[in-house]
Amino acid sequence: MVADLTTQEKLDMASKIDAHIAKHQHMPGALLPILHAIQDDIGWVPEACYLPISKALALSIAEVHGVVTFYHHFHTHPVGKHVLQICRAESCQAMGSEKLETNVKAALGIDYHETTQDGAVTLLPVYCLGNCACSPNVMLGDDVYGRMTADKVAAIVAEARAT
Amino acid sequence: MVTGFPIKIFVPRDSTALSLGADSTAKAIQAEADKRGIEIELVRNGSRGLFWLEPFVEVATSQGRVAFAPVQPKDVSGLFDADFLNNLTSNAKAHPLNLGFTEEISWLKKQQRLTFARSGITNPVCLDDYIAHDGYKGLKNALKMTSAEIVKAVTESGLRGRGGAAFPTGIKWNTVLGAIGEQKYIVCNADEGDSGTYSDRMIMEDDPFVLIEGMTIAGIAVGANQGYIYLRSEYPHALKTLNEAIAKAEQAGYLGHHICGSGHAFNLEVRRAAGAYICGEETSLLESLEGKRGQVRFKPPLPAIEGLFGKPTVVNNVISLATIPIILDKGAAYYQNYGMGRSRGTLPIQLAGNIKQTGLVELAFGATLRELLYDFGGGSATGRPIRAVQVGGPLGAFLPESQFDTPLDYEEFSKIWAVLGHGGIVAFDDSVDMSKMARYAFEFCAIESCGKCTPCRIGSTRGAEVIDRIIANKGNAKEHDKQVQLVRDLSDTMINGSLCALGGMTPYPVLSAINHFGEDFGIESAKKAAA
Ligand SMILES: NC(=O)c1ccc[n+]([C@@H]2O[C@H](COP(=O)([O-])OP(=O)(O)OC[C@H]3O[C@@H](n4cnc5c(N)ncnc54)[C@H](O)[C@@H]3O)[C@@H](O)[C@H]2O)c1
Ligand SMILES: Cc1cc2nc3c(=O)[nH]c(=O)nc-3n(C[C@H](O)[C@H](O)[C@H](O)COP(=O)(O)O)c2cc1C
Ligand code: SF4
Ligand code: FES
């Protein structure tokens, strides 16, 4: 997908990356804050950031790559406009999350770690959202939705798609 | 008719309340009040923790707050029609959502709220509200004490780490106090990865100043001027609330170079984690804070001696730190008076999974699991019998009914080869297939393993395969026995050969499932007894 970017888009991305690096590089343990800033802004962590980060923090490119890939939160590929996470952990299982997963996958026509054709939704598994009192749960963007059914998820997704 | 001061209405801003529509409820209330020309003061408070009743709306009266719950937007105009703002009238009293005075609701009244004393009562980001409700009294006392006196008070309170390992907090602090070093750190472990737990999140969203105060006292006690809160990335609301509270504490001189005009300095910063369960393990957490892969370090050296950036560091759970203010305010003896045996004080218990009345129950140690599940929990949400209960997160054992009378106490739990952990209780009804749960425990370990040791990295994947073979060979006694033995051997290897508790404790859910629920694995009761 990166290949699809125009030269101008690549330049924009590079300048954003540089700005995030410059802003955070002097913090102690700056790598995670930099990666978060990049993902918050661009939506994912492109490989194009490895070299400038490695230079700024005196790390090897392999080290930066190693950190990015260690953490589930960082996306190494572009994601859809909305990220939908379904909780797979025990409390949600106790309230039927397995069925919910199956139905949501079927409704969206995608599996975990995939994005719908229209680029609207990327589906990810998550292990506990701290909302276990109202299982099963999903998270869309920064918002958690409790006591979910496939129909309710469909409604939330439809609303998000419309915006 | 409502006259005089605008009446206060409380609608929680806690993310569980939000997940059930509290924002829409709040908006509907404001809109309806505007429409009717009634002046109200809408307060977005924290949650009282009666999560099964969120959105939990309260209205202030001269005699205390009255609760209406759960309130959906569609209920709002009806509530106004019933004159719920003037809720001592008979109309309001008769409204089906009226639960009476909040403080009189028995689910709440039966609790002993020490750490959670303010949750749901105050506006979480209002410093004046915090102070008006006994906030910063602990710090005021601490500022008059020596470091050693503070540490002594924490030790005498009997407080043990609420992250799960239950190590005495005062002894940990004493190690850090005695460690030599100009620079020391306080690190709050807010990674709260355990399924079935949310008490850390509640403190951070519903009463963040109590955590800030606790960390400040810890800094003064051990001589650390910098604190970090390592917050899981799944908690964006907690992040916002904490940052807002920290900014207010800084402005008011409760954080910064001269805490309350004293010679003590303490600065605090929130750092976001990135979705790795293992980063809740303290040394993996420190690696992550340093900007590395979250791989577990060998201990010793303990973080107390060589922690963040190699400096002496207190790593404590959110609840441990948030309990410090009340100990310093009311004294070690006050806190120590609650509890049983060597488990002193209170435990914020989180009811989750298939339970009817879920939420936060803070109680002195010693209540039984049965009381929690039935007296507080009201049984299962589905109405079917509760068959299994997992206590202490994904690394905790599954307990059958016959163990429901075990009191919540660290030692009593370890006697039955179970753990209390961070106080999460997840219930399953009789539709659960325990072989699936055992398989999931291995699967989770495989997904989250940091990869440093073989028994955990490889063993977990093998374990899931062995469970599959146990299920597939239910009809083949010889092969079945062999596979069951294999899982036991594998568990032994993991228990003895893992560097940290992820690999070392995954056998808890696996073996407890096999031992207590053998029928789900095709193990006949005769063999089960012999096992
Ligand atoms: N809250 C959660 O989400 C969660 C998730 C997974 C596991 N856990 C819990 O974590 C526990 C395991 O944690 P652990 O591996 O950190 O346990 P541990 O027993 O190795 O350590 C407990 C704490 O005591 C400290 N300590 C030990 N001896 C000390 C001394 N002499 N001086 C100062 N400090 C000392 C350690 O540094 C650590 O902070 C499990 O029992 C599990 O219940 C919690
Ligand atoms: C795999 C694993 C995950 C852990 N996750 C957490 C966690 O999310 N929160 C926490 O406070 N402790 C967690 N712990 C325990 C910490 O290592 C450590 O004992 C704790 O933060 C110390 O604080 P306390 O003494 O106040 O409990 C975890 C331990 C392991 C082995
Ligand atoms: S037991 Fe697992 S998570 Fe823990 S150090 Fe070993 S490989 Fe890493
Ligand atoms: S287990 Fe799903 S929110 Fe906690």
Would you mind describing this structure in some detail?
The complex is a heterodimer of chains A (163) and B (531). By secondary structure, chain A is of the alpha+beta class. Chain A has 2 domains: 2-70, no CATH class; 82-161, Glutaredoxin, CATH 3.40.30. Chain A has helices at 7-24, 31-42, 50-57, 61-70, 90-94, 97-108, 150-162; strands spanning 82-87, 114-115, 121-126, 138-140, 143-145. A 5-stranded mixed β-sheet of chain A has the order 2-3-1-4-5, with helices on one face. In chain A, β2 (114-115) and β3 form a beta hairpin. In chain A, α1 (7-24) packs antiparallel against α2 and α3 crosses α4. The two termini of chain A are 24 Å apart. Chain B has 23 helices and 16 strands. In chain B, the strands form 4 sheets. A 5-stranded mixed β-sheet of chain B has the order 2-1-3-4-5. Chain B has a 5-stranded mixed β-sheet with strand order 13-12-16-14-15. Chain B has a 4-stranded parallel β-sheet with strand order 8-7-6-9, sandwiched between helices. In chain B, a hairpin with a 2-residue loop joins β10 and β11 (343-344). In chain B, α10 (199-206) packs across α11, α11 (208-222) crosses α14 (318-330) and α19 runs antiparallel to α20. The longest helix of chain B has 21 residues, at 477-497. The N and C termini of chain B lie far apart (71 Å). The relative contact order of chain B is 0.10. The interface between A and B is large, with 41 and 59 residues.
